[in-house]
Amino acid sequence: MSIPWRGRFQDSSITWEQYLDIDEADQRNLEIVDGYVVPREQRDSCHQQVASCLSNAVEVSAVEEMRRSGDT
User: Fold this and answer.
1) Would you say 37 and 30 are in contact if contact means Cβ atoms under 8 Å apart?
2) Is 35:11 a contact under the CB 8 Å cutoff?
3) Residue 36 carries which DSSP code?
4) DSSP 11
5) What's the CA gap between 72 and 58, in Å, rounded?
6) Which tops the pLDDT comparison, 59 or 9?
7) pLDDT at res. 54
8) Is the pLDDT assigned to residue 1 strictly greater than 70?
9) Residue 36: what are its φ and ψ, rounded to 5°?
10) CA-based, 20 to 30 A from 46: which of 1, 37, 57, 69?
11) What is the C-alpha radius of gyration for the chain, rounded to an integer number of angstroms?
């Protein structure tokens, strides 16, 4: 079963079963926020670079903190 979510107004949150009924191709273009279907925004290359830098910084910081606290 395919549920068309594009442009659809939701008056209540989505259930897990309803989410599973959405085509996999459509799921890739959607996010669920507080139970509501939201179209995923297109990300440009600048966004991807910032996300990568942030991810790397968090990882480096976490490793340094684990070494400092002896949790390695």
Assistant:
1) yes
2) no
3) E
4) S
5) 16
6) 59
7) 97
8) no
9) -110, 140
10) 37
11) 18
30: which strand partners? 39
Comparing CA positions, the residue from 68, 59, 11 lying closest to residue 35 is: 11
Distance CA 17, CA 46 (A): 35
- Please report, as a single letter, which amino acid is at residue 31: E
DSSP 20: H
For residue 22, is pLDDT > 60? yes
pLDDT for position 2 = 46
> How far is the C-alpha of 55 from the C-alpha of 43, rounded, in Å?
16
Q: Which residue has the tokens 């979510």?
A: 5
Which residue from 12, 39, 44, 17 is spatially nearest to 28, judged by alpha carbons?
39
In the three-class reduction of DSSP (H, G, I as helix; E, B as strand; rest coil), residue 51 is classed as: helix
* C-alpha dihedral sign at 63, 64, 67, 68: negative
Q: Contact, 27 vs 5, CB < 8 A?
A: no
